[in-house]
Amino acid sequence: MNADPACQAVTPLLAVEDLWVSYDRIQAVRGVSFHVGAGEIVTLIGANGAGKSSILQAISGLHRVTRGRVTLTGEDLLTVPAHLRVERGIAHVPEGRGIFGNLTVLENLRLAAYRRRDADIQRDLEEVLNVFPRLAERRRQWGNTLSGGEQQMLAVGRALMTRARLLLLDEPSMGLAPLLVREIFRVIQRINQQGTAILLVEQNALMALEVAHRAYILETGEIALTGKAQELRHHPKVLEAYLGGA
Length: 246
Fold this sequence. Notes:
Layout: H1 5-9, E1 14-23, E2 26-36, E3 41-46, H2 52-60, E4 67-72, E5 75-76, H3 82-88, E6 90-93, H4 105-111, H5 121-131, H6 133-137, H7 148-160, E7 166-170, H8 178-193, E8 197-201, H9 205-211, E9 214-219, E10 222-228, H10 229-232, H11 236-242
Parallel strand pairs: 3-8, 3-9, 6-7, 7-8
Antiparallel strand pairs: 1-2, 1-4, 4-5, 9-10
């Protein structure tokens, strides 16, 4: 079990304890423990196959947990179906975006709020379009006609329409041009500054460590290293493995 001592010092928004996830006979995640505090950006960094996406899928309920505990403000999430975890305040932006190509930008955004019954849906929609001006310009455009970067913006915007307390982002920069990568990460910081906690899985370790408060380094399904993001940017092991020795 990889203990997370810092988790004991505070009451976290999300706490993952001794998490095990498997695919048939393959053990993808082995005894991982970590936490995300309210208002934090926490990043999980590791090579392909390290277990990062499996952890996000376990938290959002898209993959069964073999063993362990996942709580949101103390509530056991493993007893809560995936669709109800959204109501609890978790929004998952998966790798590949998963938008509805046969719906317009506005329809994609409004669909994300289908379980909400409050009076602020329109206000939140306008805020998402303010955060992503490109989506405002393309509001009546079909999802499958958007560029890769615009689809990523739509995927994040759709998650925001759920009014999530915790945003799970899986490889938000994948396949994007450098300028769009920086734009997406600026938006991630802006969302966080507005009060949303973020658990970020990202291959671009340099960008992830620039925006995150804390980081966990995963190797073959286990946590190999953890600490403040700014400190890990200068750790020899991280420099060699993920930052090209820079």
